[in-house]
Amino acid sequence: MRSISIFGATGSVGEQTVDLLRRAGGAGAFRVVALTGGRNVARLAEIARELQAEVAVCADPDGLVELRERLAESGVAVAAGPEAIAEAADRPADWVMSAIVGAAGLVPGLRVLRHGATLALANKESLVTAGPLLMAEAAAHGARILPVDSEHSAIFQALVGEDIAAVERIVLTASGGALRDWPLEALAAARVEDALAHPNWAMGQRITIDSASMFNKALEVIETREFFGVEPDQIEVIIHPESLIHSMVGYRDGAIMAHLGAPDMRHSIGYALNWPKRADLPVARLDLARIASLTFRAPDLARYPALRLARDVMARRGLSGAAFNAAKEVALDQFLAGRLGFMRMAELVERTLAALDPELGGSNLLNGLEDVLAMDHLARVRAVETARRMAGDA
Ligand code: NAD
Ligand code: MG
Fold it and tell me: If you classify domain 2-147 with CATH, what class do you get?
């Protein structure tokens, strides 16, 4: 019986993973090792009972008492706090979903790779902050990382049977997010609820706002570079409002392999779950005659400064990915709290990176985890200071 863990089981990707496991037979078909959540203890307990997990862990230490009560006499062990989540990653499992949001997904992901598991990676932030470490850890332990981000799953599928050396370009598609048709001048005043109205995908709150600012696409450009090992100038971004082509790979003979499907994360989660086979998945089938046309347009860098910042990060490497992601997480927190305007998120990230410049290190250094975590922390401190200064300027 295949053993499975899910980190971030109560989130958008986590719940869709649970849905697929349930459809494939649930507790009777898989041995569920660890399930983790953040603050939603009630939901975590429900899933853990249903799937008869060995252990349920919530990130919030204050949730332990409630988690224990809710799982009394269920046979599910309980724990809480970030260290307990990392320990849950030490429990061997064959297939592990990494679907925590943010840099908090890095340590559990690295620890999963140590026992040679297959890591289904939704947590793009771990590749952005520490791509070389993650890839080296996988190689050292014979572990496999399968991309779950829809674009990267699409690229991965378009590469099956091909030689990466024959790749000329990778074209990442972007929906353009909730505000793509707003006039540029109006963006500064966009509110949280405006940015949350994603046209095509139902996702967690943070990634939805990151889609509107294209910080999500900026992370994905860096993720592409780190995961597939292509050069930054081989990676393009195109706005494709229908979100039906999930990404494309262009080869040296001019052919482009595109991956199409309904915008449903259960496709890429299911592909990773069933890989290298394909199995039936409960996703809508495309009616191409009804769709009739697919459209594309170039992204306007004035609207999406995050894309320009991603280029700087890729040129710099070292610890700049860790700093970029951490500053972006702070900028998003500030926007969510109503303390920072929509367009000022990129300004905050840029100013934070500039302030940290001397500390970001050289180009291809394979920094240790401690350096990455220290930079993550430092960048958060600097970003909060910079945000305060920006609030003073405003
Ligand atoms: P979400 O906010 O819906 O869920 C995040 C999960 O992580 C929840 O279980 C939450 O409780 C947990 N969590 C939050 N903070 C934590 C912390 N500090 N420590 C431990 N656990 C914590 O997020 P999501 O939309 O499911 O996204 C998860 C990851 O997948 C992100 O990296 C995102 O970029 C990526 N992703 C999501 C989608 C999507 O459709 N939602 C698509 C592609 C990639
Ligand atoms: Mg994506």
Answer: alpha beta
